[in-house]
# Entry
Amino acid sequence: MPIRARSRLLTGSRESAADLRRGGPHTRTAVLAAAALVPVLALTAACGGGGGGDDKAKKEPGPVRASGAVSTAKLTSALLTSSDVPHVQVLPAGSKTQLLGPATTVDNAACQPVADQWSSRPKHTRQVYTGAMVTDTADKDKNAKAISLEVIASYAPGTAETVLDELATALRTCRDFKATRDGGVTSYTVRPVAPPAGRPALGDQEVAYTIADTARGAAGVVLVTVVRSGGATAAYETVRADHKTATLRAAIALKQAEKLRTAATGD
# Structure
């Protein structure tokens, strides 16, 4: 069921929503409208992560060759849909440039795994990836609406575990860094977030933290949650509509993990 213009994250026209799904001419306008709500890494990347034809080809993931990796078709079908979780609306990205940005360098080496989460040129290459805007309207207070940019990815055997291990290690010491992308420099602060007491594990591994663009104040604080399911990961960058402390509803991450496991096993 298409996401209605008034309730979807991207606040442009119905035409803009259709263009986002197919990567049409209104895509950039729609993504810029969303940038006010998801301001830190991913949508900053979406607005500036282009490049020439050769560069784009290098940034796009290549064919899956490693044994055990999830194929492109299976990963795409594993992405959440609006019918998977009650009160959740999903708008798939029409282009990978809406999800991840260009290569990112940092002035604090301990923070590189954090920056790599939203870069198309990370240390550990994603073999396949796709994603969407996920809007959670379960809370009756419209100001509490949670909006996530989600990226799901498949890796060569053993690599997804390494990605989560290195990210968890980084969060022990990474508290602030400056990131350089396409010549622009942005300062960020990072704080680890512990899982709620009594909540079931979201996957085989998970990490969560907030990352904040120091120039944007409360509007620049985003919750990042990364969950591994076998050889695949799901990363979420989440904000609330009113910019108060955001949470990712467990049902969303659990359903996505279930779909990734099913895609990997072929069941």
